[in-house]
Amino acid sequence: MPDALSRDEVAHLADLARIDLTAAELDHLAPQLSVILESVASIQGVAGADVPPTSHALPLTNVFREDVVAPCLTPEQALSGAPEAEQQRFVVPRILGDEQ
Amino acid sequence: MSADLRRTAAQLSRDLAEGTTTSVELTQASLDRIAQVDGSVHAFLALNADQALDSARASDERRGRGETTGPLDGVPIAVKDVLATEGLATTCGSRILEGWVPPYDATVVTRVRGAGMPILGKTNMDEFAMGSSTEHSAYGTTHNPWDLDRIPGGSGGGSAAAVASFEAPLALGTDTGGSIRQPGAVTGTVGVKPTYGGVSRYGLVALANSLDQVGPVTRTVEDAALLHTVIAGHDPRDSTSLDQPVPDFLAAARQGATGDLSGVRIGVITELAGEGWQAGVMARFQESVDLLTKAGADVVEVSCPHFVHALATYYLILPAEASSNLARFDAMRYGLRVLPEGVDAPSAEQVMRATREVGFGDEVKRRIILGTYALSSGYYDAYYGQAQKLRTLISNDFAQAFEVADVLVSPTAPTTAFPIGDKVDDPLAMYLNDLATIPANLAGVPGISVPSGLADEDGLPAGFQVLAPALADDRCYRVGAALESLLVEQWGGPLLDRAPALEGGSL
């Protein structure tokens, strides 16, 4: 298993994370991430198969409430931070690619 | 009548009750102080002067009618910029949220407003709370009031610096891996991370949901207990909020302040001291332990063998959760929208990529990519899965340690404040600052950092950390207050009075 990330792998991860990175950022990030990864890899093998994972400090349970109408944000409030809005809706760029 | 900003929140509360000052005077004095010194400290990102003064007037009117909402009615507060404040810009220290004004309040903000506390403004922080020095804010770094060339800790450096420089008597912070306690340690202030679930996270812009917790940033343990009482308690809007009775933090702090710790068992964590720790920090820590022994506590050494893996565990879990949380910054519903250059009709995905490239800083990108890697197919079991198992082992270490000790103690941070710029290009060196604070976040237990004195080699503050079992936050207050009272007696006054940059009230 690689504990170092190549420039191409970082570019791929950035792609998955939907972040454009400049060439300079890729040059800078790849070695830094490799060093971090090498450091955190130290935990591999510390816990055996018998150790249950803990995802959260608290035991989580669903929280239900009565389905009653209550005051909430108005459309104007909900849209107040939107980069672009029209007719009480968020305006977004096209979501289908050229292949669609 | 006067408003002495060097007085603690508890003293100001008494001044208000006795009528020797008013909330308007206090709030105006804080705003004047901010105007005077914040150019040097840069603790604040946004001020809320008009609304704060309105709130102060309402508090004074209430008091005039013989009504108050509680002890902190009329005492002003600063709020870390990661908490949503209705009508007041909230940026999380990031360009991607520049100018965003939330249409609602975080529950803790609702509670401090309900307690009658004027909100002075929003404090600077590392972008999305990622960092240990407040150098990763998109709006410039905050400076440590003890030495303006040094970092104030992070990510809540703004809240700690505001309290340390007497710009605000109290502040709210958030602690994901130590972001309240570590800034507290390096600025000579008190910082509390409550039990996970003890304070609502509704309206806190999430960094890592399973670790984040809101808490007080103050100058004394009693003040922290007062503020913690205001913000604690169940919130139906947060599914992780505990529906449990809130301990009496103030009574515990006052009991501790008598200096009697008879029968209290204190465990010194073997793994959180020693090699690599600054000598002056360790010396202050050892002196504090000796004082607690003299106060009647039984001190034992306890080993938490998996704590050596806490840092690595945290730096896998946190980026994994953060990469998922920060996916919401997609340029569609709020925040920045950047159109990619040279594209005629860009798609939503292209806009999202371009926006995140411009809107996020280096540390945020680093962690999103690390988290994406840790969660990706083929590596999940080796990294994220292992980290979740380590979390179990670290929680077990705590459980075993709390069988032999009522509280556990360590230095809060391995070093005092380092010079600005020293570690900004070395993420691993930066991460080491959170070494002693992280285990509590992984296990959800509460912790407090109390000033333990000044390190001999640089004259800068060091912190003493007290950790307690989940829901036993009152133990942190009792032991923290006992140490504080013994140390203040020894120093002959509050530690902050000895900050060189603050002498004479110039800063």
From the structure above, extract its key features.
A: 100 residues, mainly alpha, Histone, subunit A, 3 helices, flat, B: 507 residues, alpha/beta, 16 helices, 11 strands, GatA (chain B), nucleotide-binding (chain B), ATP binding (chain B)
Describe this structure in words.
- The complex is a heterodimer of chains A (100) and B (507).
- With 100 residues, chain A is mainly alpha-helical.
- Chain A has a domain of 40 residues: Histone, subunit A, CATH 1.10.20.
- Chain A contains three helices and two strands.
- A two-stranded antiparallel ribbon of chain A has the order 1-2.
- In chain A, helix 1 packs across helix 2.
- The longest helix of chain A is centred in the N-terminal third of the chain and has 18 residues.
- The model of chain A has no long low-confidence stretch (mean pLDDT 91).
- Chain B is of the alpha/beta class and 507 residues long.
- Chain B has a single domain, classed as Amidase signature (AS) domain (Amidase signature (AS) enzymes).
- In chain B, 39% of the residues lie in helices and 11% in strands.
- Chain B contains 16 helices and eleven strands.
- Chain B has an eleven-stranded mixed β-sheet, with helices on both faces.
- Chain B: GO terms for molecular function: ATP binding; glutaminyl-tRNA synthase (glutamine-hydrolyzing) activity; transferase activity.
- Chain B: It is an enzyme of class 6 (ligase).
